Amino acid sequence: MSQTKDKTEKMASPSPIPSRSPEIRHDALTNRWVIFSPARAKRPTDFKSKSPHNPSANNTPCPFCIGHEHECAPEIFRVPSDPAWKIRVIENLYPALSRNLANPSQNNQCLELDCADRTLTGFGFHDVVIEAPVHSVQLVDMEPTEIGEVLLAYKKRIEQIMVFESIVYIQVFKNHGASAGASMSHSHSQIMALPIIPPSVSARLDGTKEYFEKMGKCCLCVVNMEKFLIDETTHFISIVPFAATYPFEIWIIPRDHSSHFHEVDSEMAVDLGTLLKLMLRKMCIQLNNPPFNFMIQTAPLQVKESQLPYTHWYLQIVPQLSGVGGFEMGSGCYINPVFPEDAAKVLREVNLTTKA
Length: 356
What we know:
Layout: H1 2-11, E1 23-27, E2 32-36, E3 75-79, E4 87-91, E5 125-130, H2 144-161, E6 169-176, E7 188-194, H3 199-215, H4 225-228, E8 229-232, E9 236-239, E10 250-254, H5 266-286, E11 292-297, E12 314-319, H6 326-331, E13 334-336, H7 340-348
Parallel strand pairs: 2-13
Antiparallel strand pairs: 1-2, 3-4, 4-5, 5-7, 6-7, 6-11, 8-9, 9-10, 10-12, 11-12
Helix pairs in contact: 2-5
């Protein structure tokens, strides 16, 4: 009897009390509430990915490798424009939208209808940017100038798509690793051009407008650099946002106010490539080479002139360290186990002499 009692008491002993209490923070940019619950995590320095980016990745040639161009969907352009290419932009073999539908300009008529069920023709563009000709080379392995060339390829493709009046938003994104949504281990990113403004983009516009009307400033021009800064270059800063939705989420923000990513020039692209490489290296070392997504969060193409003062583009990096559960899906509130200032401190102090 006493042995059972002792065992029960041992099992019921309380967990250590966390050093910080939970907080609920509002992100002015995304207009989202985030719950920070340190009791749900280990120390930030122990936060590691349990599944590195793609355990099955190898050097086996694939359709994205140089010499296998004929196995891919049609090419849009390459850089440089000769057989020894560094970057290729191609159509997605399994596109979510169709570039071949007729009369796309008629799509927007549906948006004016006052009815519950509205349908648009699925016109749009879904492209793939092959970032390197060699299978084993990942973005983090490339030089800043090479990453800059990839960014300029995004810019060129965006400018090509902008001539279609029915396209109102273009999303550039990268899925790195199978659990982050990548179906190919060869380093690549994607571009989707839509005839609608996605709900998260509309929410972002509403949030930044509300902040601007209250404070008279763009919320990304006045970010808190003291606690949340990771690193900086001539044209960009990298931070963990004040109300980060995900653990170790990173934003790379232009220092100068700019609404659209495609406004970058060659110098800025290399500078952004420098900081992006640095962030990926820090993430790789500290978080055990996690699967990740990055998204270029830019303004709608047809943004009104009155919206320009409070629309500020940025590049968002999200390491896949925790899943999304029923609470998040049901409420729209997210639970982050790592306080942003703690994550920023950890990333600032990563020793880059360690092999990634």
